[in-house]
Design goal:
It contains eleven helices and 21 strands. By secondary structure, it is an alpha/beta fold. The strands form four sheets. It has an eight-stranded mixed β-sheet with strand order 7-6-5-3-2-1-16-17, with helices on one face. A six-stranded mixed β-sheet has the order 8-9-10-11-12-14, covered by helices on one side. A five-stranded mixed β-sheet has the order 13-21-20-18-19, covered by helices on one side.
Length: 438
């Protein structure tokens, strides 16, 4: 292809300028989340060759379906482009592993060739949006999992300058987050959109809001293979769930996998074979549900959780049920609420030692129980006071204390790409962050 792009895999965009130039979030090899996630469809040999020939790789954030170390081993020739995440964890760790990494400053166009340039915008959740300009006429807004955390006005300001625009972003029923949750009576909490209402109206609303021409399904094209997470396949979003419902939508909601020729302004579908799920034993991935904690494990878990000062303002305790035994860690006993994780030791200790607790929850094999006086007994019950402070601001951003959190948010606010809106979840987030905002 002379100038254009392809989409394939879970969240992989391949951009061309006289050949493969840039690939984003290339999860091409192996599974993710301790073997829980696999692709819904194979990556054809042609697109695999394009990915591996790319000169640049952009990584949006650290989740293993976007930053796959096994996949990056096949791309050591490429320059790795990264958002300007506060803390620079991914930059430091990839550099230490021998990769060439470069940080893209927020809001600045960077030329990758004479016809392709990119602009990145990082957000407080340690994710990012990438804008790709193809020849000055086509814009791709790759929002992957990032949502609109303040980059929305940047996207709106850019879109009008292009004849054609595409959005690649997560729109799904909700399984791409922790949904294996229960109340203290043992009743499973229904996941968001459990009724699986149509996604198309929401997609069209997003396109209209930003003035973007077309949407390509993206960042949700996975399924589950572990025997302890297979249940989640009933909740996954598949390409047919986002298919255009009538002729009026056919130029606005495009196929999940496609090849777009920017010179001709034409696209054609890519039809990769489906991946058949073969149920896998958790032991294949180092998880034996009967294995108890080892000597010293509880001390490591306790030290890990007690680093998060924000928890002392609302959370009584955290419990871990491992190998049939329950272990309790008191945080602030005066608060009548806690959370219990029932999980295998192998993945738990990996997450604690590598500070990647999100990976444990998103795999949806860990059973999470809300205990006591939580405001809402739903899958959003731990948001925004628990999840982002633990996984985004702490693990990925390195901000654990109140002073570190204030410095963390002050830097994002200084850049001008942090915003809150009138949605309930956004208002709740602003409430939780208020003690740390300038």
């Amino acid at each position: 292809m002379d100038l254009g792009f392809e989409t394939i895999g879970n969240a992989t965009l391949i951009c061309f300028d006289r050949g493969p130039l840039l690939v984003t979030d290339p999860w091409t090899h192996g599974s993710a989340y301790f073997g829980s996630w696999i692709h819904q469809h194979q990556i054809p040999a042609e697109q695999m060759a394009h990915i591996q020939a790319a000169k640049y790789v952009w990584l949006s954030h650290g989740h293993p379906d976007h930053l796959s170390m096994e996949s990056l081993e096949h791309l050591r020739h490429a320059d790795i482009l990264l958002p300007d995440h506060v803390g620079e964890r991914i930059h430091r760790e990839l550099r230490a592993a021998g990769f060439r990494t470069w940080i893209l400053k927020d809001g600045l166009w960077v030329s990758l060739s004479d016809r392709v340039r990119v602009m990145c915008c990082a957000n407080i959740f340690q994710d990012a949006v990438l804008l790709v300009d193809l020849g000055g006429e086509v814009l791709i807004a790759n929002a992957n999992d990032a949502g609109d955390r303040g980059a929305g006005h940047l996207v709106q300001n850019c879109v009008g300058r292009f004849k054609r625009s595409f959005l690649t972003a997560l729109v799904a029923f909700g399984d791409a987050d922790m949904i294996h949750m229960f109340d203290e009576d043992g009743k499973q909490i229904p996941p968001p959109n459990a009724e699986r209402g149509p996604l198309q109206p929401g997609i069209l609303g997003i396109l209209d809001h930003y003035g973007i021409t077309s949407y390509v399904p993206f960042a949700t094209l996975h399924q589950y293979q572990r025997k302890d997470s297979l249940w989640t396949n009933a909740q996954v979003t598949r390409p047919e769930d986002m298919r255009a419902r009538d002729a009026s939508e056919e130029q606005r909601i495009l196929p999940a996998y496609l090849s777009y020729d920017a010179r001709k302004d034409e696209w054609k579908p890519i039809a990769p074979p489906a991946v058949q799920v073969v149920p896998k034993d958790p032991k294949d991935f180092g998880d034996d549900w009967e294995e108890p904690l080892h000597l010293g494990d509880l001390e490591k878990i306790t030290a890990y959780f007690r680093r998060f000062e924000h928890f002392r303002g609302f959370l009584g305790f955290v419990e871990f049920r491992v190998g049939g035994r329950t272990h309790r860690i008191d945080i602030a006993p005066e608060y009548p609420r806690g959370v219990r994780f029932e999980t295998p030791r192998g993945s738990l200790m990996t997450c604690v030692e590598w500070q990647i607790f999100d990976d444990l929850m998103i795999g949806n094999f860990t059973k999470t129980t809300l205990v006591g006086d939580w405001k809402t007994k739903n899958t959003m019950g731990m948001y925004p006071d628990f999840n982002p402070f633990l996984t985004k601001f702490g693990d990925n951003g390195g901000a654990h204390t109140a002073a570190e959190l204030r410095a963390y948010f002050a830097e994002y606010q200084r850049r001008g790409f942090t915003a809150f809106d009138d949605r309930a979840d956004s208002r709740e987030l602003e409430r939780a962050l208020e003690p740390y905002l300038a």
